[in-house]
Amino acid sequence: MSSVTYEHVTKKFGDVVAVSDLDIKIEDKEFLVFVGPSGCGKSTSLRMLAGLEEITEGNIYIGDRLVNDVPPKDRDIAMVFQSYALYPHMTVYDNMAFGLKLRKTPKAEIDRRVKEAADILDIEVLLDRKPKQLSGGQRQRVAVGRAIVREPNVFLMDEPLSNLDAKLRVQSRAEISKLHHRLGTTFIYVTHDQVEAMTMGTRIAVLKDGLLQQVDSPQNLYDIPVNAFVAGFIGSPSMNFFGATLIQDNGKIFADCKDFRVLVPEDRYSVYKSYLGQQVTMGVRPEHVHDPDYSPPGIVPALVEAQVEVTELMGNEVVAYLSTPNHQFLGRLDPRTHAHVGKSVTAAFDMSRMHAFDQDTGLAIR
Amino acid sequence: MAVSTKSSPPPPRRRRWNSLQAREARLAWALVLPTALIVFGLVLFPAIFSIWISFCDVTLKNLGDVFHAPFVGLKNYQGVINDFAFEWQGFQSWGAAVTSVVYSFAATILTVALGLVASLLLNRPFKGRGIARALFLFPYVAPIVSVAFVWRWILDPRPSGVLNDVLMRLGLIDLPQAYLATRGLALVLVIIFEAWRYFPFAMLMILARLQALDATLYEAAEVDGATTLQKFWYVTLPELRYVLGSIFLLRLMWTFNKFDDIWLLTGGGYGTNVLPVLTYQFSFKSFNFGKGAANAMLLLLILLVFLIAYVRIVMRDTEEA
Fold first, then answer.
1. Cβ of A14 under 8 Å from any chain B Cβ?
2. Which CATH architecture group holds B60-320?
3. How many CA atoms lie within 13 A of A132 on its CB side?
4. Which helix (H) or strand (E) holds B201?
5. CB-CB: which of A50, A52, A73 is closest to B225?
6. Over 50: is that where the pLDDT of B66 sits?
7. B241 contacts in chain A (CB < 8 Å)
8. How many angstroms separate the Cα of B86 from the Cα of each of A44, A57, B111, B227, B263?
9. Interface probe with B: pick from A83, A104, A110, A190, most Cβ of B within 10 Å
10. Which positions in chain A touch B222 (Cβ < 8 Å)?
11. Nearest CA distance, A36 vs chain B (angstrom)
12. Rg of chain B over all Cα atoms, to the nearest angstrom
């Protein structure tokens, strides 16, 4: 069990900067998720930790040990690959035992660990099969099993669920979380799927273009995103953004979005004061757009007239695509809503959950 | 209505000669016919005819009336098997049968091994890889006559032979050596020549498989703690098993039937007389065509034994995987 420290780590491929000045400390037993769109440097960050990519600048520590020049096998890590990378000619048992065999672990010990891992993952009956004879979900378990038997200090997982179908992915998500609790080891997990990140991570590191945007708990990322990118990336459907001017009228502050004007809650006045008269980006999550007839208690509503473009009935809610002359946004409305395609509807923004971002820097105003 | 249907005769089944189906069929025959004629005339007929000849007494004297050649049963086969050039005479004179087997297996194994090494070298990207690949292909694409004569020139027994000249200048030998006319060494040299000439074929096939290998397998092995040698042994080699097996079989068959390479280098002398060369000698040196055909049939039989063994052993594994 170990902590992991990235100390101003940079990775360049020729002139392309894949990861820029990554500085992050991952605590022992933590489940850290690197998340971001493709090409953001999340996989590269993980591969540098695994020792599969060289570090251009900076240092990586596992525990107190500087591992920059330590080969992968001596880093005491185990990795699960996106393609699983199971050895095709070996049985499941041999796949799992391979790393231990190379380390000259006694046969009885190998057998004990493989059986134990197979028991945890419920794959005992598959031990004699070859990878070709397994389904995608089974292969994924074997890949995880191969990592478990090594009893590493750090688990690395590179999009291990992205080759599974949706239902299996949800199931495997919970299983990996359970595994983390059970093993009590540091997990570092890479995904492009923010739902996976939110549901599994104790902390999430959001990356974009090789730059670390924010590292925080899932709830904090959702509630207090540091910038518009994180705000838009975390949450599904993603946050609605409106170009707005902050104006003062009768001692109250409004966000003027041209088509409509919404009242800013009083507790934000002190922060937003310096932006008065300026263009900002206002953000409201779809789940904070309600049908006023069915809005939950305790919200600070601001009513907006909008046209209904499309509705998607989900059963527990209706995702409505709404538009005003200058804006388009989504609302997750109560299924009893009167919103129907082609009609206009009044939407209630919960202004207590509004966000505002500087239009130049994208940073949250707070 | 039911009654009328019952009494009416069944619809004519006869296919009209200009129906679409019939015309398609005629076109198909027309397109296949030239090839079929060529295959029959140049492959099937000679093959079957030589089986026939192997049971007949065909020599120069009755070549004009070969279809009425006297049937002699297994006499030709007996003649071949008892021929000193075919039969094992001891370690000093192996006979063509044993020489053929040794030559084919040794050359094939060496070809595959060389091809494997070359493909591993050329698999990883480096500067000038394209040129290196082209150079490595050279022995395979160059005309056999020219490369054989280059080798003969290198191994020439006169002091002017390249190898003799070099070795004498270096002081390693005092007198020029006749490499291709030394029993034992000559066979080793033709084996090396064969491997040198055909390793690019093995290299190409192996390279194609190597390029298709999943690179993450190597990364997984690296994380698992495998050294370069272990990665080759546990990841690369098992993945190459079937392509190596196929190349081995193909090369073995082709080498077993190989005539021109040995003919051009040694003419079949000095312990390099293999079955195809012997066939030629029976047929066109002593003009005993019956014996030549019988020898060719024996060659085919030995090859069939290898083939069946291969299918039994290697192909069975393929289906398991």
1. no
2. Orthogonal Bundle (1.10)
3. 6
4. helix B185-211
5. A73
6. yes
7. 89
8. 66, 72, 26, 49, 17
9. A83
10. 51-52, 71-73
11. 22
12. 28
* Interface probe with A: pick from B218, B224, B235, B242, most Cβ of A within 10 Å: B224
Q: How far apart are CA A79 and CA B236, in angstroms?
A: 20
Q: What is the pLDDT of residue B13?
A: 58
CB B310 within 8 A of CB B249: yes
Predicted pLDDT at B316: 67
CB contact under 8 A, B219 and A87: no
CB contact under 8 A, B226 and A102: yes
Sign, Cα dihedral of A111, A116, A120, A123? positive
* pLDDT tens-place string over residues B145-166: 999 999 999 998 888 888 988 9
The residue ranges of every structural domain in chain B are 60-320
Closest partner residue to A87 among B222, B235, B321, by Cβ?
Answer: B235
pLDDT single digits (tens) B83-123: 877 888 778 788 888 889 999 999 999 999 999 999 999 98
The ipTM, to two decimals, is 0.84
Q: Could you report the per-residue pLDDT of A72-108, keeping only the tens digit for each?
A: 989 999 999 999 999 999 999 999 999 999 999 999 9
Q: Is A102 on the interface with B (CB under 8 A)?
A: yes
CA distance A257 to chain B (A): 51
Residues of chain A with Cβ-Cβ distance to B234 below 8 Å are: 87, 98
pLDDT, one tens digit per residue, over B259-301 is: 999 999 888 888 888 889 988 988 888 888 888 899 999 999 9
Check B230 against A102: CB less than 8 A apart: yes
> Is pLDDT of A1 > 80?
no
CA distance A185 to A63: 12
Q: Tell me, what's the pLDDT at B38? A: 93
Taking CB atoms and an 8 Å limit, are A88 and B225 in contact across chains?
no
What is the C-alpha to C-alpha distance for residues A220 and A231, in angstroms, rounded to an integer? 11
By C-alpha distance, which of A83, A137, A149 is closest to B217? A83
Strands A186-191 and A31-35: parallel
The structure's pTM equals 0.79
Per-residue DSSP letters for B20-58? Answer: HHHHHHHHHHHHHHHHHHHHIIIIIHHHHHHHHHTTB--
Q: B219 vs A99: CB contact, 8 Å cut-off? A: no
Residue type, B3: V
Digit-coded pLDDT (tens) for A312-332: 999 999 999 999 999 999 999
How many angstroms separate the CA of residue B234 from the nearest CA in chain A?
9
What is the C-alpha to C-alpha distance for residues A280 and B216, in angstroms, rounded to an integer? 46
What is chain A's Cα-based Rg?
A: 24
